[in-house]
Amino acid sequence: MQPLNFKHLHYFWVVAKEGGISAAARKLDITAQTISGQVSLLEQDIGQSLFVQVGRNLQLTEAGRTMLHYADQIFMLGKELKQAMERGDSQRARLNIGIVDMIPKSNALQLLSPLLQTSPNTIKLVCQVDGELNELLAKLTLHQFDLILADRPLLNAEALQLRSQPLATAPVMLQGTPELVAQYQAHFPHSLNGAPLLLPTRNTALRLQLDAWFAERQIYPDIVGEFSDSELMHTFAKAGIGLQPAPVIPSKTIPIDTLQNLGAFDQVEVQYHAIYSPKKILHPALEKLLNPTNEA
Description:
By secondary structure, the protein is of the alpha/beta class. It has 10 helices and 10 strands.
């Protein structure tokens, strides 16, 4: 297959954005015949129609919608590249990190802090938080991310031609405001019978562990809220709505918040993983994050 002609792609992109060949011709200040011919060459190159005539209007085919999706990303990156060159940012590497949103933001900071410590003033972190690991993985396979932080291993990593590497293990504490901690501290954990709890939603790895922990001890808390976002759960906890489970990475000195620890969920822990593509050349800072023992 011949390499994609980006001039043809640009003409297609403008036609799709402007809604027709005549409008695109006015936008680009060239003849409609030229644009029509260039789009036809692109269709011949890929072997599929990108537009279909409906009355007087052009509509994208399924192939056209797919082409437009990728063209949007290509020309957005081209714009960012030009801006970076104009700013003189070419010496500062951009590292795109996807983060599962049930990872507490303080833990994400602790996990990523070695990147900034080992490569000061040489990288720029661009972090995107998303609730769906599958959504992040799709973007990773499209090389939109350099790395994903997840709160569980990727079980089918080999089939997806990815790697899932553990970064840290965090025991889980139960936290709350000083008033709630004082109220339920005596006889912990059995004091949690009827206690107001804020928990992750049922599709998370931590929630499965917590449900089993409570069932094994025959403890029945009052679940007053379920959350798919750790930051929102934390906000409710700080307001005194209920107690929250919080994975805490040990041996770190970054201050976290004003909530107090009530007690630990023994034998419950969260393992944070870095997911990345072994086919992509990694920035040296990422190499050090993944292989800290290899530092000189």
